[in-house]
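Retro notes, item 3 of 5
We never archived the inputs for the zinc ion complex last cycle. Fixing that now. Sequence and ligand:
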Amino acid sequence: MERIKEKLVKFMTGRYGVDQLYYAMFALWVVLTLVNIKVDSLILMAVSDVFIVLAIFRGFSRNISRRAAENDKFLKVWNPVKRKVRLFYRRIREIRVHRFRKCPHCKKTLQLSIKRGKNTVKCPRCQEKFDVHIIL
Ligand SMILES: [Zn+2]
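Structure as it came back at the time:
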């Protein structure tokens, strides 16, 4: 067992390994494969296989700087999406306690306690004041 582990470590030395793009491609492959069970399309199968082959290729690649640059490009797109999805679920989770409004000056999303009606709010980031109207 120790020898296998040693060989594996030696094999992976200098290779890129896994990153966020790897996990995204793997997840996409899983989703497309599950959809393909229902749809049974040859094209969909080929597309999903491209994702898993690319993910494996990236993991074993020795061109680390290029793989890291690809991951950075992916994260520039993925992180804003992730932030919006997290905020969406947080809004639902805290719907009884807080409301979330964007500051019109600096565009930061503020968490406000529920005060129904028209209120003036001071943004903690840019110190500007603006009106918010909370109906429900
Ligand atoms: Zn602000």
